[in-house]
Specification:
This protein is of the alpha/beta class. The strands form four sheets. Strands 3, 4, 5, 8, 9 and 12 form a six-stranded parallel sheet that branches. A two-stranded antiparallel ribbon has the order 1-2. A two-stranded parallel ribbon has the order 6-7. The chain has one domain: Alpha-Beta Barrel (TIM Barrel). The chain is globular. It binds zinc ion. The site of zinc ion has 5 residues, from loops.
């Protein structure tokens, strides 16, 4: 269960957590049975960069695949971010709307991405007002700009060590969202004792043997009925940029590998929960 990555993140092993009730139901329905090798894979694109619009949207569309776009809502159209960093957010919500049209899931990735000290985080240090901005107001932004209620909160921070959450944050998230996708390291793997389902979130960054790794991981996903969430950041031919996850051609090759595998379900987080527990009623939360 260790994924060694040669670029940007040397060693990363991560998991995601979805509300305990979902997890339990999901586990029950996904226990592998004889002759059935079926796993779930999710492609999660974090931070809503313009390159995700340029490359990920058309590439996934070609293979009739839907990803999850995790949007820091106040970054959309924030021109100052273009100047401050090499990260380029999508300029308008109209671009995000195209993902919705194509069947993607739009997740909240907070408002300001306050995941570390530089960004005035992490969340445990935020005031109640700031925390509400990140969790509740980001949801309101998505409803206002897209007319849809986000199902999932994707916690900002490349690992949970960067932005660990406590009961205060978890409670608020669970009140507002049906699923929480986060990243963490080996130490906290399945740390919630009541959570028997194996969700495995892996940041994908370019490395020479990325495809062999992806094939290996997806094989584990199928054989053990794991749900693997690959999360990807900027897509660019400039691999010297530390924000870059992979080249457009590599993303295309990766999607081809996943599409060619008939035993693999590529799902959004919402689809995964709903497929895993079809009786689950989607909860509507008031904001
Ligand atoms: Zn992020």
């Amino acid at each position: 269960m260790v994924c060694i990555l040669n670029f940007h993140v040397a060693r990363a092993l991560n998991i995601s957590y979805i509300r305990a009730k979902h997890l339990f139901d999901l586990f029950e329905s996904l226990i592998p049975t004889k002759g059935r090798n079926q796993g779930f894979v999710t492609l999660r694109f974090d931070d809503a960069s313009v390159q995700q619009y340029e490359y990920a949207l058309p590439i996934l569309e070609k293979f009739n695949m839907h990803g999850v776009l995790a949007v820091p809502t106040k970054w959309i159209g924030d021109r100052s971010r273009l100047v401050q960093s090499r990260y380029q957010p999508m300029e308008t919500w109209d671009k995000v709307k195209e993902f919705v049209k194509m069947g993607w899931e739009i997740a909240s990735h907070s408002r300001y991405h306050r995941h570390d000290r530089i960004t005035k985080g992490p969340w445990t240090k935020l005031t109640v007002k700031e925390l509400h901005e990140e969790i509740i107001d980001s949801k309101r932004d998505i409803i206002k700009n897209l007319g849809i209620e986000p199902y999932t909160m994707v916690l900002p921070g490349i690992t949970t060590a960067q932005n660990p959450i406590t009961l205060r944050e978890k409670r608020l998230i669970c009140k507002q969202y049906s699923a929480l996708s986060l990243s963490s390291n080996l130490k906290v793997f399945n740390r919630l004792g009541r959570n028997p389902y194996n969700l495995w979130a892996i940041p994908l960054h370019w490395s020479t043997d990325i495809f062999a790794k992806v094939e290996k991981i997806t094989r584990i996903s199928k054989n053990k009925a794991f749900w693997v969430i690959f999360y990807i950041h900027k897509i660019s031919d400039d691999l010297s940029d530390p924000l870059t996850s992979m080249k457009p051609s590599q993303l295309k090759a990766l999607v081809e590998i996943l599409a060619a595998d008939e035993d693999l379900n590529v799902v959004t987080i919402r689809q995964g929960v709903e497929l895993g527990c079809p009786d689950q009623k989607v909860q509507v939360h008031q904001v």
